[in-house]
Amino acid sequence: MKIIDTKLKGAKLIEPTVHLDHRGFFLESYNEHTLKQSGIGYNFIQDNHSLSYDAGVLRGLHYQLAPEGQTKLVRVTRGAIFDVIVDIRKGSPTFGQWEGFVLSASNYRQLLVPQGFAHGFCTLVPDCEVLYKVDAYYSAEHDRGIAWNDPDLNIEWPVYKPVLSDKDSKHPPLVAAENNFDYKG
C-alpha cells in the first residue's frame, strides 16, 4: 500500500497494491495493521455504500460537527468520481482550500478524509458505487454542509448543473456555515 500526503495536512491518498492477472485482480482494500504502521490509526466502525444512477450527481459538501465528526476512508467500486475535500479547521494554514481527486474502480485509489474537512463528490459516469468507512456513527443533530458552489471556495467541479438532493441544494457558504473544528497543528 502506498500512502501519499495531500497538500491539505492530514488528508491522504492511498494506493493499494493490486495483483492483476488473466482472471482479474486482488487487493487489500483495508488492512488495519498496514495503515497503523503508516500513522493512520482510526477505528472505523461503519461502512457506507452509495449508488448514483447518473453522471453529474453531486453529493456534498458534508461534515459532522465535533464531537461527532467523522473520518472517512472513501473508495469507488464501480464507475468514477471527482472527490473533493475542503479544509474547514479554523486556524489551519490551508483553511478554506480544497483539493480534488479522481477515484475510480479502475485506479483503485482511496481518499482518507479526516475530521475537520468537508467532503463531497461528483459522479463522472453513470452507475457509480462509492463505499466508505467512517469512525463515528451518523448524527442528524451534528450533520452540516457547505454549498457546493461557494464562490469563495471556487471548486472546479466537472459539472455546471449537477443533480443535487434537496438538502445539498440549501447548504450555506463556508463563511456562514456552523463549524467547530480548530486546527491542532
Automatic annotation (TrEMBL):
<dbReference type="GO" id="GO:0005829">
    <property type="term" value="C:cytosol"/>
</dbReference>
<feature type="site" description="Participates in a stacking interaction with the thymidine ring of dTDP-4-oxo-6-deoxyglucose">
    <location>
        <position position="138"/>
    </location>
</feature>
<feature type="active site" description="Proton donor">
    <location>
        <position position="132"/>
    </location>
</feature>
<comment type="similarity">
    <text>Belongs to the dTDP-4-dehydrorhamnose 3,5-epimerase family.</text>
</comment>
<protein>
    <recommendedName>
        <fullName>dTDP-4-dehydrorhamnose 3,5-epimerase</fullName>
        <ecNumber>5.1.3.13</ecNumber>
    </recommendedName>
</protein>
<dbReference type="GO" id="GO:0000271">
    <property type="term" value="P:polysaccharide biosynthetic process"/>
</dbReference>
<keyword id="KW-0413">Isomerase</keyword>
<comment type="subunit">
    <text>Homodimer.</text>
</comment>
<dbReference type="Pfam" id="PF00908">
    <property type="entry name" value="dTDP_sugar_isom"/>
</dbReference>
<dbReference type="InterPro" id="IPR014710">
    <property type="entry name" value="RmlC-like_jellyroll"/>
</dbReference>
<comment type="function">
    <text>Catalyzes the epimerization of the C3' and C5'positions of dTDP-6-deoxy-D-xylo-4-hexulose, forming dTDP-6-deoxy-L-lyxo-4-hexulose.</text>
</comment>
<dbReference type="InterPro" id="IPR000888">
    <property type="entry name" value="RmlC-like"/>
</dbReference>
<dbReference type="GO" id="GO:0019305">
    <property type="term" value="P:dTDP-rhamnose biosynthetic process"/>
</dbReference>
<dbReference type="InterPro" id="IPR011051">
    <property type="entry name" value="RmlC_Cupin_sf"/>
</dbReference>
<dbReference type="GO" id="GO:0008830">
    <property type="term" value="F:dTDP-4-dehydrorhamnose 3,5-epimerase activity"/>
</dbReference>
<comment type="pathway">
    <text>Carbohydrate biosynthesis; dTDP-L-rhamnose biosynthesis.</text>
</comment>
<feature type="active site" description="Proton acceptor">
    <location>
        <position position="62"/>
    </location>
</feature>
